[in-house]
Amino acid sequence: MIGRIEARLRLLRRKLSRTHWLLRFLHLSTSEGPANRPGLVMVQIDGLSLEQFNHALNKGKLPFLKRLIKREQYQVHTQYSGLPSSTPAVQGEIFYGIKTVVPAFSFLDREKGEMVRMFEPATAQQVEHELREQLARDGGDALCTGGSSYSNVFGGGADQDEAHFCASSLGWGSALRAANPFALLFMLVANINSVIRILILLVVELLIAPVDVVRGLYNGHNYINELKFIPARVAICVLLRELCVIGGKMDIQRGLPIVHINFLGYDEQSHRRGPGSLFAHWTLKGIDNAVERLWREAAHAPRRHYEVWVYSDHGQSRTTSYFKQQGYTILKAVNAAYAGLDEGVPIAAGRKRAPSVEAQRARLLGGGKARHLIPVKTTGGDESNGKVQVAGLGPVAFAYFPKALEPAELAHAARALVTRHKVPAVVTGRGEEHVRVWTADGEFLLPQQSAELFGEDHPFIDVIGEDLERLCRHRHAGDLTLLGWRKGVAPITFADENGSHAGLTHEETRAFSLLPMDAPLPDSTRGYHRPCDLREAALQHLGRPTPATLPRRAQARRERSQAPHSEQVRVMTYNVHSCVGIDGKLAAERIARVIAQANPDVVALQELDAGRARTGGEDQAQRIAHYLEMQHHFHPHIHVENEKYGDAILTHLPMRIIKSGPLPGHLPGGKLEPRGAIWVAIDLHGTEVNIVNTHLGLTSRERVLQIEALLGDDWLGRLNADQPVILCGDFNCVPSSKGYKLMRSRFLDAQAELKEYRPVCTFYSRLPSFRIDHVFIQPGIQVTGITVPCSELAKVASDHLPLIADLTIPCPDAAFFDEQQGTDDTRDMTARSRVAS
């Protein structure tokens, strides 16, 4: 009843929603179909390394993401960015599955003979066109096909109307740009909270800006660049972020299959102030709040069942600029090496620093005013004397010579750069059989000697040599590749910045992904995944309406069941409300995901349909068991023609049915719903454990009759006292009721038996107020943990929360835990149950 009321209130709220009317007023299309279709919101936090992410979590800068980990069963994964560790390369791999799509953010386009940068629309469009053609030849599909893309380098397959603030399409998509002024005004009014937020944060940023300028001047930065950075920072850290949230929330309401949003604020601040700076971490609070708003919108989406995945493309490393270290630019150093000045000719100190990338991304907002407010060069090259060109943004630079050089000449120039000009490493061998790396310590080969160059402790030493070789052989790579870091050398950057990326340091290449625990990441023994693995997981999630993670859960169960001390068993009881959530959506997949995340051995389910028209005619017990890779027994309390309604027991352990049948009911004046029970025996490694699942009536008198029947000789009364029994289900009785007290006369309440644990209510799921779901155990069975999942998924999937009990069965044929192990396990399980509940 409560669930139906909430579902109707949700429907009414959708009809009155500002976003609902905004979509109609803007004439934006919606994706119609079953409400349980999978959807995905991917949030990229640009430039945030795993180290800085963990630091921000510990310092309270990311409170909502921390909550996802603690309460929503999200898990942090290590992600290797690949090379170059820059946004275009990572997004090319995620969107199109192609590694090292560009050699760097800035490079010489050898076909055009021009220096380009990836935030130039023409360059981004050309590269993306090549990616689409290659993917079409391979028969693949771009990740964002049918969805939308915000603040990315590439549209990722999204239609032109759905690519917003991307380098390949500046500003809003064409559909919103073509909207009439009244529609845009209505959009502002409908999002008045976001507008107020933008105005407040703009004022805060402008108040902070003078302090930031003074610090920049104190550290020797150019005052003109400091002043230009103020509007760029405000545009990126506040305005662009809020516009992306507004657009993303609309697309979630529209039901687009995938929405990909990139938040650039942290990366922008890190380039200027360093990855660990207070200003950089201050922007993470705003990003965390933006993710929370998107997540809550996704949790109440009417047209799809969305998941929200958060990840970073790469990290940043604290660096010193080459200009500051040497007193001249890297271009002057390469010119000297090319001209043979390493023979003793002095070099005049350069006065012009290499350009930085800041303010480029503010132009993503589009429009002539943004471009005039924050002017930037349209070409990406450094200063050039007409002989040598150098593309250097970050700790990787490319030297392009006006004529082809012999290998001996390239080696000569490389030795000059690493000895006289203090470049940490120079790579030669583009187009040759062997790739050689020159350092002050000598010559090395790739990928054979990667460990000697970058250290055996590098987290990705097994692949980084191959990736560097691929980068240096890219058709747009330089004749020489200059690296700002190697083992034993402090990292430097060839641009004017305090934080940099694109290189090979631990922090640059070690990104993260924050995904639900059952996200379908490919199994890997390496301990990390890379962008193409994240792409595969996203496509698998979108392409299948079933939880793609459950085989991994089944494997985890098998591993646990094969472990020593096999008397441990995890039992779950769960009233699934015919798989209809409190949002009104029919989704057996959600129920299966809730179960899979808990990883139980035995599952007792109540209120299941089979062949009923109201739930699409499917056998819900069979479907859930199929998802979980479990066997099941189903007992219908109601059986009218082909329609059934009842309870089931699922398990991966050997199981045999002992009895299933009706329970007596009391008829005070009208017919009550028939009730029943199902009794199975599971083989727990040689010990037979009796499991009974039931769903009792709504009135006190009928419950007492039903409990008396269960305790009588027709049911459990015929068992010997030494036979393990677990009786669970929805008893519809609270601890103060007669039925509960009658059960306690024979059995123990698992929740009440766990020391230092306060029993938790399971009904109603949104606001648990009643403890009517129980796991009763025979004396002698030990309770080592209780869990009541309270994630958003569990709260919405049914009107009950599941109850999970970790039990130790007194198996006479199995060795018990030693005392110390048992104490440690009890302590761990108790702590886990406190956190989960």
Characteristic key phrases:
837 residues, alpha+beta, Deoxyribonuclease I, Chain A
Could you walk me through the main structural features you see in this protein, from its secondary elements to its overall organization?
The longest helix has 32 residues, at 223-254. The chain is an alpha+beta fold. Among the domains are: 322-496, no CATH class; 550-836, Endonuclease/exonuclease/phosphatase (Deoxyribonuclease I, Chain A), CATH 3.60.10. The protein has a seven-stranded mixed sheet, with helices on both faces. The protein has a six-stranded antiparallel sheet with strand order 11-12-16-13-14-15. Helices cover 38% and strands 21% of the residues. Helix 10 packs antiparallel against helix 11. Residues 341-357, 377-385, 544-554, 561-566 and 813-837 have low confidence and may be disordered. A hairpin with a 2-residue loop joins strand 22 (631-640) and strand 23 (643-651).
